[in-house]
């Protein structure tokens, strides 16, 4: 049996990284890359996937991303998924182009659109993250997280210019649009072209 793994939230400047692993126990029709599906379709499939699979979802906070870096957070999440789901499968496949140095992990570009287990993981990760961003949007109403989910839209960047970053923002993601410079001594930092 195959466990598909995918993430949501690698690129945003606010909110968590969410990584999901799925072992399908039954066939599910309509699976695809979560970014291609409508929100309504993703929500419907989310519940069906949870009913018809063994799955594990890992959230990593913006604070932890700042502390140890995105790659380490991805690797730790994948290792947790492997540990939790290895009783149900004998193969692990991640969407993308790297195994993060994990010997038992295979990878495939566009797996989220071509491998049902990875499509399912993509949907669980995206819906879980979107729900989280909706959930915090009232507390952080100045930033309109419910609209952009933490990605670097023009409106989001304008809100950061006006109000600064919240504790849900990634401080290690330096933004060219805000004329922020990277500190070469901090390996967890990334320059984001917004």
UniProtKB/TrEMBL annotation:
Sorted UniProt keywords: Cytoplasm, Endonuclease, Hydrolase, Manganese, Metal-binding, Nuclease
Protein name: Ribonuclease HII
Keyword Lyase found: no
InterPro entries the UniProt entry points to: RNase_HII, RNase_HII/HIII, RNase_HII/HIII_dom, RNaseH-like_sf, RNaseH_sf
Function field: Endonuclease that specifically degrades the RNA of RNA-DNA hybrids.
Top-level EC class as recorded in UniProt: hydrolase
Keyword Cytoplasm: yes
Cofactors demanded by this protein: Mg(2+); Mn(2+)
Listed GO CC annotations: cytoplasm; ribonuclease H2 complex
Highest taxon in the source lineage: Bacteria
Entry's Gene Ontology BP terms: DNA replication, removal of RNA primer; mismatch repair
């Amino acid at each position: 049996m195959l466990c598909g793994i995918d993430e949501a939230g690698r690129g945003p400047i606010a909110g968590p990284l969410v990584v999901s692993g799925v072992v399908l126990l039954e066939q599910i029709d309509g699976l695809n890359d979560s970014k291609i599906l409508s929100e309504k379709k993703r929500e419907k499939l989310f519940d069906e996937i949870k009913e018809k699979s063994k799955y594990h979802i890992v959230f990593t906070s913006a604070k932890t991303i700042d502390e140890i870096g995105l790659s380490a957070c991805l690797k730790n999440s994948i290792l947790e998924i492997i540990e939790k789901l290895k009783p149900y499968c004998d193969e692990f496949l991640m969407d993308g182009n790297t195994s993060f140095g994990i010997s038992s992990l295979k990878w495939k570009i566009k797996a989220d659109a071509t491998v049902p287990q990875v499509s399912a993981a993509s949907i669980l990760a995206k819906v879980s993250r979107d729900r989280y961003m909706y959930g915090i949007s009232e507390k952080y109403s100045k930033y309109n997280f419910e609209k952009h989910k933490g990605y670097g839209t023009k409106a989001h960047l304008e809100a950061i210019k006006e109000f600064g970053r919240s504790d849900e923002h990634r401080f290690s993601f330096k933004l060219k649009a805000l004329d922020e410079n990277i500190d070469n001594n901090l390996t967890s930092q990334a320059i984001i072209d917004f």
